[in-house]
Design brief:
It is a single chain. This protein is about 25% helix and about 30% strand. It has helices spanning about 15-25, 45, 95-110, 125-135; strands at about 5, 55-60, 65-70, 80-90, 115-120, 140, 155-160. A seven-stranded mixed sheet has the order 1-2-3-4-5-7-6, sandwiched between helices. A hairpin with an 8-residue loop joins strand 3 and strand 4 (about 80-90). It is globular, with a radius of gyration of 14 Å. The model has no long low-confidence stretch (mean pLDDT about 95).
Length: about 160
């Protein structure tokens, strides 16, 4: 069965939270000030019912592999949303799935009227940082918006075509 992409459903919450936290632990990322301790991580379905947001999950043979979304984070400039919670299970990495998720998010952001996407990440997630750079994200000197993820110290911005 091929890899499929779809919008998040309530039944995805528990498995997505597990993928996110397991990934962060695997890369020895701080638990406080990241998605690990973010209370919304346990109910992403509810979070992504917010107007101006979207979240996609990826499955293979009915098994959830991860997901990514866009969110209108408070304090971002007009026309800018945040690329959030792009996480894949270990066995799904390095196969181009992250890039496909990015493309889904870019398309959705354009449809929702955004012209820029912002993200926050950490140096421990170097493979993801490289993917973001290849996708056209540029490094910023400081954080934008009020994500609450104060442990993140890499900030990037992409202008959508």
């Amino acid at each position: 069965m091929p890899i499929t992409f779809r919008t998040i459903q309530a039944r995805d919450n528990e498995q997505l939270a597990k993928i996110i936290r397991t990934s962060l632990e695997e890369f020895k990322v701080p638990k406080i000030g990241t998605a690990h301790s973010d209370p919304t991580t346990d109910d992403l379905f509810k979070l992504f019912q917010t107007a101006g947001s979207s979240y996609f999950v990826v499955e293979e043979n009915g098994q959830l592999l991860g997901g990514s979304g866009i969110y209108p984070t408070e304090g971002l400039p007009e026309g800018c949303a945040e690329l959030v919670k792009l996480y894949l299970s270990e066995n799904a990495r390095g196969k181009g799935i992250g890039k496909q998720l990015l493309e889904k998010c870019f398309e959705s952001a354009r449809q929702l009227g955004y012209n820029q996407l912002y993200l926050e990440t950490l140096p421990q997630l170097a493979q993801a940082v490289g993917m973001y750079e290849k996708a056209g994200f540029k490094a910023l000197d400081t954080a934008l918006g009020n994500s609450g993820h104060f442990a993140c110290n890499i900030w990037m911005l992409k202008t959508l075509d």
